[in-house]
Design goal:
There is one protein chain. With about 180 residues, the chain is α+β, with helices and mostly antiparallel strands. The chain has helices spanning about 25-40, 135-145, 160-180; strands spanning about 45-50, 60, 75-85, 90-95, 105-110, 110-115, 125. It has a single domain (about 15-180), classed as Peptide Deformylase. Strands 1-2-3-6-7 form a five-stranded antiparallel sheet. It has a two-stranded antiparallel sheet with strand order 4-5. The model has no long low-confidence stretch (mean pLDDT about 95). It binds nickel (II) ion.
Length: about 180
């Protein structure tokens, strides 16, 4: 098992930055992908983008099939790009490892086509469908948003967003105070 990353929490500036395109899937990227996956599993997350571990490259991992203490089918995406989105919308209550214990209903396109490079360097496409897999549809869009410096709270009013960020700051401070 590889060493874990530390997950960055709001309001860290790296979460608001645009990640850079990856040149090629080499050993460094493969190591990063595996380490991100382990970090995501350890935090019981279903998705994790590079910004969230303090790296500004266009890399994300997802596993919407995992159950507790059981690996499902991980998906690795390098340079993901939404090349089509439906007019139809779907809504899902989203959370984020960088915004712990905060949730909100977020509306997004009900279907998207994503072009990406997989962990073997192969060009792939994914077509999501909210009716078939609501979580996957929202997860992939949420993670690609991360690579563009966008968080789910950015879809909310500034009052709601600031309230959630303050709550996370309090939470992080409380945790730090307990670890002496
Ligand atoms: Ni997130």
């Amino acid at each position: 098992m590889s060493e874990l990353y530390e997950i960055v929490k709001v309001p860290a500036p790296v979460l608001k930055q645009q990640a850079d395109v990856v040149g090629q899937v080499d050993d460094t990227i493969t190591t990063q992908l595996n380490r991100m996956l382990e970090t995501m599993y350890a935090s019981n997350g279903v998705g994790l983008a590079a910004n969230q571990v303090g790296i500004l490259n266009r890399v994300l991992v997802m596993d919407v099939t995992q159950k507790k203490d059981e690996r499902g089918k991980p998906i690795f995406m390098v340079n993901p790009e939404i090349i089509w989105e439906s007019d139809e919308r779907s809504s899902y209550q989203e959370g984020c490892l960088s915004i712990p214990q905060q949730y909100a209903d977020i509306e997004r396109p009900a279907s998207v086509r994503v072009k990406y490079i997989d962990e073997k360097g192969q060009l792939q496409e994914m077509l999501t469908n909210a009716e078939e897999d609501l979580l996957l549809n929202h997860c992939v869009q949420h993670e690609i948003d991360h690579l563009n410096g966008r968080l789910f709270v950015d879809y909310l009013s500034s009052i709601k967003r600031n309230m959630m960020i303050k709550k996370v700051q309090k939470l992080v401070k409380a945790q730090e105070n307990h670890v002496l």
